[in-house]
Write a structure and sequence with these properties.
This is VanZ-like domain-containing protein. Keywords: Membrane, Transmembrane, Transmembrane helix. It holds the Pfam family VanZ. InterPro entries: VanZ-like (IPR006976). The protein is an all-alpha fold. It has one domain. It contains 5 helices and no strands. The chain starts with a helix and ends with a helix.
């Protein structure tokens, strides 16, 4: 049984809007705002009890890079139920690689990073896995 048309439409609109905002953030000429957000996350980690050796800027940036793509694969998994976590992991890997290529080749204020590709891919995997797990739990409970 497929999704009702209005639900699928709402998911696609949300996905489209998120992708546009994501493209603006990832293809901005500099990464100042993104670094500030990672610093805020680092400070939050320390405030809730993580020590300074754990709540570091590089770890916060990695976590932010993972979290930023999770909504794409989660919304996409909901909008296109036939896709699974493998599909979304592959798509996010390709998208992350393309973004890093653009950042490295075209945006002089940005630096391409293999670690960002890994983090983005893990985020894509995580978003799709959350949807898959929720579906599995609902199927066994119902």
């Amino acid at each position: 049984m497929g999704l009702p048309g209005r639900v699928r439409r709402a998911l696609l609109i949300a996905l489209g809007a998120y992708v546009v905002l994501l493209a603006i953030a990832l293809l901005a000429p500099t990464s100042g705002t993104q670094s500030e957000m990672a610093s805020w996350l680092c400070d939050l980690g320390r405030a809730v009890g993580f020590d300074a050796g754990t709540a570091t800027q590089p770890r916060a940036e990695f976590l932010c890079n993972a979290l930023i793509l999770a909504p794409v694969s989660a919304l996409g998994s909901l909008a296109w139920p036939r896709t699974d976590w493998r599909d979304w992991t592959a798509w996010t890997f390709l998208a992350a690689g393309l973004v890093e290529l653009v950042q490295g080749a075209v945006l002089s204020g940005r630096t391409a990073s293999y670690a960002d590709v890994v983090a983005n891919t893990l985020g894509g995997l995580a978003g799709a896995l959350v949807v898959a797990l929720v579906r599995r739990v609902r199927a066994t409970a119902g």
